[in-house]
Design a protein that fits this description.
single chain; 486 residues; alpha/beta; 3 domains; 6-stranded mixed sheet; 18 helices; 17% strand
Length: 486
Amino acid sequence: MKRKMAALVIGNADYPAGDELENPVNDAVDVSTKLKSYDFEVILGTDCSNADMEKKLKEFSVLLKTHDVGMFFFAGHGMQIDGSNYLLAIDTDGSSEIDAKHSSLSLDKVVEVMAKSKASTKIIVLDACRNNPWKRAWHRDASMRGLASVYAPKGTIIGFATSPGELAADGIGRNGTYTEALLQHIDTKDCPVETMFKRVRNTVAAATKGKQTTWEHTSLAGEFYFNLGIDKLVDEYDETALADGLFGLDTSKPSHIIIKDLKSYNWYVQNPALLKLDEKSVKRMGVNDLFVLGRNIYQAACGSSGAADVFIENFVSRTAQFGAGKRKALLDGMLFEIFFDSTGNFRQKIKGEYFDEVFDLQKVPALKTSFDFIADTLVAVGANFIELPGRGHELNVTVSTKKGKKGYIVESVFIGGQDVFQPPESDWDDLDGIPSYSKTVIERLNGNLSRELVVPQRLLNVTYTPATVGEDDVIYIARGWSIKKS
């Protein structure tokens, strides 16, 4: 489920006077940030010397030994010499074509490194056809401008900012014209990379009034998507179960009748519905229906349905006769509902009302596969947690306070030697700029830390400093506080 992806991203702009560029460093930084959001492991270089570029390519070649997808991005000056392409460092020697070749990064070398790697998908993106700074000094023919066509080895797609032999616009904003279009379309969900490049081509043509035509060479055998929908990351359940807002109800099915009643937001309808969920009815239910049932049981419990609350508390005994696979589907759905909304998108804030109760089930060895499922799913979508839910690891936390006149004031929260306490947003400040505080005690604050950190209380070891802070002492914490996830 987890895609292992690595990228080398380089942006060179600080060339010698007269040849400097405005956008490439911004291009590299923005592309790097975007790739990290899709869980790429990124090596970033800006304003690199030739030695820097060679060093980073070696680091990249090591990463490619253990990654399924490799991507190389370069923004800066590029040129062709004797039919081969070279990516210019900020210290490339332009005295002659020979000097330039041996003080630049050869695109052929990049292609070869990636071709010989174990990565099954290789993506090369070059916003590097702006011009050759030394074309007049070298008395070059106009036909030699821009970059030359390149062979794409098996499993590779190479995207150029413009057609072979043509020049690309440097851009009038933060990014180059090509990179700006790339950043615009890379987020399109479930869009194959070839289709994405076509959309980039259309946007660049519109931005340049048809003067610039992007270009690709490809030998990809399979599909690659930057922004994968949850249904492509999880193959155990159908799309309409993962994005259950799409789930169509068929009231001729017992499971769908229960789901319909659970969606009623009416306790007098919800509570009797769960009595229908027994060993006999479950035998006729498929895993997708049970997954959606699990989601709606959790949802109903969060809406204060007493029967749903009791079902979660007694999950082990209530589902003992359901069979391992069907029991798993129910619990998978409950866990999924905590972290994902009805469109299948990851929640920015978990639905945590019964988080502890559901995660207490992790103590039951027979239910381990469900917690593996949710942990793997969270990894696949690149969810950012200090400790990954589902793995069952303990987390040690130290809350640092100072003694005030009426109690203790929280100053910081340390995990692994780092302060992860996020100050409140300014909206929570009093008019004079002084943060307003809420009163609490250790037991309640530990519960809030559990929800913020998304770690069950039984796995959360919290200590307070100074050691004189007691269970009954009043603790003040700034309203609107949160935990930094990275």
